[in-house]
Every structure is written in C-alpha cells, then in structure tokens.
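Notes from hallway chat w/ T.B., transcribed later so I don't forget. T.B. wanted the structure written out for a chain they're using in a teaching module, and asked if we could keep both sequence and structure tokens in one place. Agreed to drop them here.
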Amino acid sequence: MAGLQDELKKQNKRKGMSDTAATAASVKDTKSDGFVDMKNKKRSKKDYAVECAPSMGEDYPYGLRLDLDDEQMTKLGMDIPNVGEEITITAKGTVERAEIRDSGDGKKKSCCIQMKKLKVG
C-alpha cells in the first residue's frame, strides 16, 4: 500500500501539485454536504471501446448501484422506499485491490472496495 501512495505522490509532484492541492483537486466536485456526485461525464458512442460496454449511456458508472433483497433490507431496518426517494447510505469496507496502470495516455489509478457494513438513513 505504501508503494501505491508513493507513486501517487510522485504523480502529483510531476504535475506540480502538493499533497494538499492534489487532495483539493480530487474533491473539487464535493458539495457542501461532503458528498461527491459520481455522475458520468457526457460521452458519445465513439468514446466507448465496445458498443455494449457496461453502463454505456447511463448517468452513473457501473458498480455504483446497490441492490438489496428482503434479508438485507430487514437487517438495515428498512421499509420499502418510494421510487425516486433520496436515501443516505454510510458504508465501511476494505480495499481489495489498488493499482496504477500505464494506459498509453498516462497512468490511471483504480481500486476495488468491498463494502462490509452499511447504514441507511
């Protein structure tokens, strides 16, 4: 993990950004309530490598949808919500994967977080 953090710091220095500036840049879309809108950027079909790519044309990226069944809703103390209702979710998880890849047009970072604990409301 330290290697990943060191690599991210090196990237920021090459961009002329301090750790503080990099953090500020990464949360520039954060609203006053502390949440970041994860909505996809507008793209055309030619921006997708495969025409049937997951979430193509969707407002939010693949993997950000949370499906809960009866057992999970019961554990969370949830009644059936109204469609379109906004719900606050707090989660705790573990990083399962963290990497930096050279994609040909620069290094790209990614990670996988396994959500383990949720709180709704």
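Follow-up for T.B.: Helices lie at 2-14, 19-26, 70-75. Might be a good example for the class.
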